[in-house]
Design brief:
- This protein is of the alpha/beta class and 369 residues long.
- The chain has helices at 8-14, 16-24, 42-46, 57-74, 83-87, 109-120, 135-138, 158-177, 183-206, 208-217, 232-247, 285-299, 334-351; strands spanning 28-29, 32-33, 50-55, 78-82, 97-103, 124-129, 142-145, 223-228, 250-255, 272-276, 303-309, 321-325.
- The strands form three sheets. A five-stranded parallel beta sheet has the order 4-3-5-6-7, with helices on both faces.
- α4 runs antiparallel to α11.
- Bound molecules: fructose -6-phosphate (F6R).
- Fructose -6-phosphate binds next to α4 and α11.
């Protein structure tokens, strides 16, 4: 039931705040992360020296976002791999490896086979999954469910923010178990997480109509590029994937720092480029670096659409369009910056008259390898 929305996708984007809130619910007590599903499983995290996150598509981008926070908070090295690539290259894994799989459906065959492979080769496995009782969690040593609610539209939106939230909860839990995160720091990160739902709601209320209008103007666009740095990089990849899937136009995401190593050759007058701008106050040097990327592409005629923090005055004169997100601490911005990109992809597909819930050639759950 679309509940009065024009599409399941519109409904599910509107549910991004509750997807985060529901994933947090019951898992925070007095500023500490408490994950009942992981009770008694401390040994799972005690003996590991590395984490490999495996997933496909949007879930893999959630994993890429999670990597930054997991490494920072647990000091355990993290690799993120596409499940189908992991499985077929004789990966070096063993009892010191925790393989964290991420899957909305819990049935993605590529991910399932990778989890089975990891188990057979002695790794420990933890599943982050949105579907109760699905196959992948049943094949794993531990489960942390996302509580995004059922996702019907084929392309994933609200599950993504729930996956990032679950990864952050897991990272804080492991950081506390291993003593790499202090109680005070954990409480500060938890407070950031708890503030996210209201901030996403703010984007939906203040920016959604403007973004949809803007997407309408862009309906004839044939190619869109996305740039991001650090946690903004996987968000750029996610923005590009959603646009391909929903609007069938060429879209590519790049690490902003990689621009001069090749992709800048693509910039010609009028080329639309979304740039995920890190916080000027919270990201240190990175903000300056991204602003200088904007200058480089603008000098070559790019049409710059910046996703930037509300108070970021430096970006305003340099961008053709600024999509505003509220202030959030380092690591937490991706949970906000992705929202305008989801709205934009849906808006552009809608402007082209396409079925946003059921894009061509795609299935919700890919149960073949
Ligand atoms: C993108 C999308 C796909 C899925 C991928 C993994 O919008 O929907 O890329 O994210 O197929 O699916 P799950 O999470 O069910 O394993």
């Amino acid at each position: 039931d679309k509940g009065g929305w024009s599409s399941f996708m519109a409904k599910e984007i509107s549910e991004e705040p509750e997807a985060v809130a529901n994933t947090l619910r019951g898992r925070i007590r007095d500023g500490e992360v408490v994950i009942p599903e992981l009770d008694g499983l401390d040994d799972l995290f005690a003996g590991i020296s590395r984490i490999i996150v495996i997933a496909c598509g949007t879930a893999a981008y959630a994993g890429q976002v999670g990597k930054y926070a997991i490494e920072q908070w647990t000091r355990i090295p993290v690799d993120v791999e596409l499940a189908h690539e992991f499985r077929y290259r004789d990966p070096v894994i063993g009892p010191d490896t925790l393989v964290v799989s991420i899957s909305q459906s819990g049935e993605t065959m590529d991910t399932l086979m990778a989890v089975k492979y990891a188990r057979e080769h002695g790794a420990r496995t933890l599943s982050i999954c949105n579907t109760q009782g699905a196959t992948i969690p049943r094949e794993s040593d531990a489960i942390v469910y996302t509580h995004a609610g059922p996702e019907v539209a084929v392309a994933s939106t609200k599950a993504f923010v729930a996956q990032v939230t679950a990864l952050y909860l897991m990272a804080l839990h492991v950081g506390r178990v291993r003593g790499t995160v202090s109680a005070a720091d954990a409480a500060a990160h938890v407070a950031e997480l708890e503030a996210i739902p209201a901030k996403i709601s703010q984007i939906l209320e203040r920016e959604q109509p403007r973004i949809e209008q803007f997407a309408h103007w862009m309906a004839d666009t044939r190619s869109v590029l996305f740039l991001g740095r650090h946690v903004g990089y996987p968000i750029a990849l996610e923005g590009a994937l959603k646009l391909k899937e929903l609007a069938y136009i060429h879209a590519e995401g790049f690490a902003a720092g990689e621009l001069k190593h090749g992709p800048i050759a693509l910039i010609e007058p009028g080329q639309p480029v979304f740039v995920i701008v890190p916080s000027p106050s919270k990201s240190g040097e990175m903000h300056k670096k991204v602003v200088s990327s904007i200058e480089e592409i603008r000098a070559r005629g790019a049409r710059v659409i910046a996703v930037a923090e509300e108070g970021d005055a430096a970006v305003l004169p340099k961008a053709d369009e600024v999509l505003r997100i509220p202030l959030a601490g380092p690591f937490f911005e991706p949970l906000l910056a992705v929202v305008p990109l989801h709205i934009f992809a849906m808006g552009l597909a809608t402007a082209k008259g396409l079925d946003v819930d059921q894009p061509r050639n795609l299935a919700k759950s890919v149960t073949v390898e």
